[in-house]
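Page 42, continued from yesterday. The earlier attempt failed because a stray header line got pasted into the input along with the sequence. Redoing it now with the clean sequence only.
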Amino acid sequence: MSRKSVTQVLEAADAAGLGWDDVKDRADSEVYGLLFPGRGDHDSVFAQPDWKAVHKEMARVGVTLKLLHGEYADECAAAGDPAMSYDRFCRTYQ
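This time it went through. Structure tokens are written below.
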């Protein structure tokens, strides 16, 4: 971790009035949210598939992520929405 990063974290903790005892039992993501509220929040530019339905379909015999991505891409094209690439689809599903 760079000196600049350490300084930014210490300054953010100081500004938020947080000490080690306040954060020692929290997850990294929760601490980050306390130190830098709003940073990292963003909406995807891609249409999001119904991930629960994707997971349910993956339990069926013969269904692959390639097949489900193709269906997702077709639905996006029909709706005029941007679709994520197959690679991003797979990484997001994991």
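Notes: Residues 3-35 form one domain.
Reminder to self: strip header lines before submitting.
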